[in-house]
Amino acid sequence: MDNAWNLSFDCATKTFAFSLSFVNLQSLANDYITIKQQVDTAITFDDYTKAKKLLTDTITKNLNLVDCDMVDLCPGTPDRQIDTITRIKALKKYVDTRIMPSLNRYVFKEGYISQRLCVSVEYQMAPNDKASTIQVALLAIFADYECLIIPAAYKNTVNFYEGGKHHLFTRYSTSYDNNKDHARTNMIYFKNMTKLPCLLDKTNAQIGHIADSFMQVIGYLRKHPQTQLALTDTIDTTNTIDTTNTTDTTAPIDTTTPTAIPMYVPTAIPRSCLSPICIPQIIKKTVKTSKKNSKNTSVSKPLKKIGDYLY
Questions:
Q1: What predicted TM-score, i.e. pTM, was given to this entire model?
Q2: How many secondary structure helices (H) and strands (E) does the chain include?
Q3: CA atoms of 60 and 72, how far apart (whole Å)
Q4: Could you give the CA distance from residue 278 to residue 300 in angstroms, rounded to a whole number?
Q5: pLDDT tens string 27-77
């Protein structure tokens, strides 16, 4: 799942959401080590724009969200009035007309074999029969790929900035609403920080559901750092992929033991934080502090703090 394309779903009919991303937490950790000196040097010379760009580029490279959307699969019909067959047919049509073209564009290009794709759905409790129908249908549609059913709580462990910790979201009376508020707020921060094209035209309401699909992937990888699916970088240079039959029984399986992925990336980040996307916020505070201070020594304290946030 790490170092793989991840197609992830928030199962619903009226607010169905998906995200397609390439997530590599090991590379993210390694890249932070690589750019530490460059970031420190940029801050030393008051080049906060360069420091922020180095950090943001590293994040978008390794948490690369290339496509996402949220739709109503059966517009104009209340959820309770949608029968099972209509619900599944609407889902299948959306997968065929919207998601498969995206997979062909990003995943199946240049002859990459199909095992590079991992499909994730959020676990649905039995009483939620409508969402469970979507979950089971998605697993059937993508049964030829690596599939995961991810517990809903995993996305709650992810926050993109210090103020985005899950326990801080308590303004609603139900845990469901607070969980949604947590995911939506963090994803809006991620959108504003990264400016990823696939997020720019999405409303905050849409982003809230997209967040569930994207953040559960990261939450799973943090919870299971040793996860190693049957993935390979082998490229078929003679033929393109036939997406009508995605099973490749001849593909070599990587059985090597993967390098452990840090539970927190990097581990020097505050323990509840996913990654130092919050560093640019500290940089902004540094700029404000240095402007108020006439002495040049004002930079030394923020530098020490930023150093604490990196390896």
A1: 0.71
A2: 10, 5
A3: 28
A4: 19
A5: 887 887 888 888 888 888 888 888 888 888 888 888 899 999 999 999 999
Residues 185 and 160: beta-carbon distance below 8 Å: no
Domain span including residue 105 = 4-309
Instruction: Answer for the pair 104, 133: CB distance below 8 angstroms, yes or no.
Output: no
Residues 39/51, Cβ–Cβ less than 8 Å: yes
Give CA–CA dist 149/218, Å, rounded. Answer: 14
The DSSP call for residue 276 is G
Cα 274 to its chain centre, rounded Å, is 11
Q: Which residues pair with 68 in a beta bridge?
A: 19
Count Cβ atoms below 10 Å from residue 36 Cβ, excluding itself: 17
Number of domains forming the structure of the chain: 1
> Please, are residues 31 and 62 in contact by the beta-carbon 8 Å criterion?
yes
* Residues sharing a CB contact under 8 Å with residue 197, sequence separation 6 or more, in sequence order: none
Two structure tokens written together for 292: 């108020």
- In CATH, what number is assigned to the domain containing residue 55? 3.30.420.10
Q: Which amino acid type is present at position 185?
A: T
Residue whose C-alpha is closest to residue 86's, from 143, 134, 136, 132 = 134
